[in-house]
Task: inverse folding
């Protein structure tokens, strides 16, 4: 490669075009900054191209297909032997969605004056970035930089993802045929989401989790609802179980696993999916040349303004400590851009919601009961089951509940959690309530429309106060 002698000058370089990176670039453009956005692959990052959007498209499709069996009780008759699912056709539909969103991001970048460069970026110093693109090498001189390089799947050294038998989440979402059997190493949100989707499409799924239960990052009563539904789908769940050896023989994957309860076992499946976490993409981008420090796990420490130890270099998204969530990265992108633009902005809210697109869906914000009690707080808990909600019954979605965690003295809402249909949309009310430091009375006095799932929040709030209408009032 030939190193260019003249550096292109710009106000800000953004490295990484995922949700955090392109959001930062667009906001910087709005603030009048000259911006170069460098992305080595495709705008939208893993989330849009190989993660969030494709997986939710698969989950949505699998949900529709699985529900066909329930149509008869509603009076809908379908030919019993004439219903099928074609994963190849689904792939075409998914690609159309991704392409449409890709074009949208590109258009927004263009309209906001963002220069998009495709290539691999590496810091040459604390004010220069080199980009290798199409066999050439270009240099950009910047006043500020934002690192938004995201993360990648964490794969144990004894496993080799080959894309044929042993898969990561990207390879799983590129399959052209539904496997007859699938073993999943990791019972966190990615493993559960994809496992339930493939199970609904007729695949025999086994989930192996080292922790004592699946979804160890959420409250136990919430995870229990998902585990119950998973078993109804025929998914075999092996918790407190460790994978000891993986071999591929005769186009089948053989997993030797061990647990104290069952000893050594052999699990044989057509394919194995590895979903045990993600690691930050902070290697190979020249952070040492820029003087940016990382911790022993590769994460970059930032302050509330998203500044690294080098004050004019910022970091956002999965390369920073905290939950690897696209909406967190986007918020950090806005904060970093506004700080660079001279506006007062900070990542100072503890209320980052999470959503798991399992069946039933799971979402939450703020403290769980266990977390609040570990902090020494005296709490009240209000809960309302969807089986007592008219809308949930009318749409054949009775599983799950909503729950509010309340400070017993001040009545301030500490956390709001939901497991059930459309939890991903229901949690928005919870985020706003906690951001506004609402008391449980604020929720209980707010008129909610009927018949809707949102009435669950009203009933849960009233339950915490001891006067719920549609359930018997009792301490939870």
Result:
């Amino acid at each position: 490669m030939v190193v260019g002698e003249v550096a292109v000058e710009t106000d800000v370089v953004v490295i990484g075009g995922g949700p955090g990176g392109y959001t930062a670039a667009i906001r910087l453009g709005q603030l009048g900054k000259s911006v170069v956005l460098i992305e080595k692959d495709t705008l939208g990052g893993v989330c849009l191209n190989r993660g969030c959007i494709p997986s939710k498209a698969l989950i949505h499709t699998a949900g529709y297909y699985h529900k066909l069996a329930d149509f008869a009780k509603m009076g809908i008759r379908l030919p019993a032997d004439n219903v099928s699912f074609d994963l190849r056709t689904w792939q075409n539909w998914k690609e159309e969605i991704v392409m449409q969103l890709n074009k949208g991001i590109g258009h927004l970048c263009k309209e906001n004056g963002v220069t998009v460069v495709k290539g691999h970026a590496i810091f040459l110093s604390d004010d220069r970035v080199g980009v290798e693109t199409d066999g050439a090498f270009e240099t950009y001189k910047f006043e500020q930089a934002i690192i938004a390089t995201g993360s990648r799947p964490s794969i144990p050294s004894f496993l080799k993802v080959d894309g044929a038998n042993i898969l990561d989440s990207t390879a799983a979402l590129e399959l052209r045929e539904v496997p007859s059997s699938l073993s999943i190493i990791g019972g966190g949100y990615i493993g559960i989401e994809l496992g339930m989707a493939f199970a609904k499409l007729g695949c025999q799924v086994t989930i192996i989790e080292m922790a004592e239960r699946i979804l160890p990052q959420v409250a136990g009563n919430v995870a229990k609802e998902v585990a119950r539904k998973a078993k109804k789908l025929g998914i075999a769940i092996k918790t407190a179980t460790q994978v000891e050896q993986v071999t591929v023989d005769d186009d089948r994957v053989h997993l030797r696993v061990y647990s104290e309860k069952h000893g050594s076992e052999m699990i044989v499946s057509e394919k194995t999916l590895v979903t045990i976490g993600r690691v930050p993409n902070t290697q190979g981008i020249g952070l040492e040349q820029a003087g940016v420090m990382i911790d022993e796990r590769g994460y970059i420490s930032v302050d509330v303004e998203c500044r690294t130890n080098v004050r004019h270099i910022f970091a956002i998204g999965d390369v920073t400590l905290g939950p690897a969530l696209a909406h967190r990265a986007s918020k950090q992108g806005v904060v970093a851009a506004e700080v660079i633009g001279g506006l007062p902005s900070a990542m100072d809210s503890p209320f980052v919601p999470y959503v798991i697109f399992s069946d039933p869906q799971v979402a939450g914000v703020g403290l769980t009961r266990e977390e609040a009690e570990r902090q020494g707080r005296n709490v009240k808990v209000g809960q309302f089951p969807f089986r007592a909600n008219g809308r949930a019954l009318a749409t054949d979605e009775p599983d799950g509940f909503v729950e509010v965690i309340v400070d017993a003295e001040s009545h301030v809402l500490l956390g709001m959690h939901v497991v059930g249909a459309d939890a991903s949309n229901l949690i928005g009310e919870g985020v706003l309530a906690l951001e506004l430091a609402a008391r449980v009375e604020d929720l209980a006095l707010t008129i909610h429309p009927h018949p809707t799932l949102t009435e669950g929040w009203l009933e849960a709030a009233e339950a915490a106060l001891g006067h719920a209408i549609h359930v018997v009032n009792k301490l939870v």
Remarks:
- The first strand starts at residue 8 and ends at 15.
- The domain at 166-276 is CATH 3.50.50.60 (FAD/NAD(P)-binding domain).
- The mean pLDDT is 95.
- The chain has 14 helices and 22 strands.
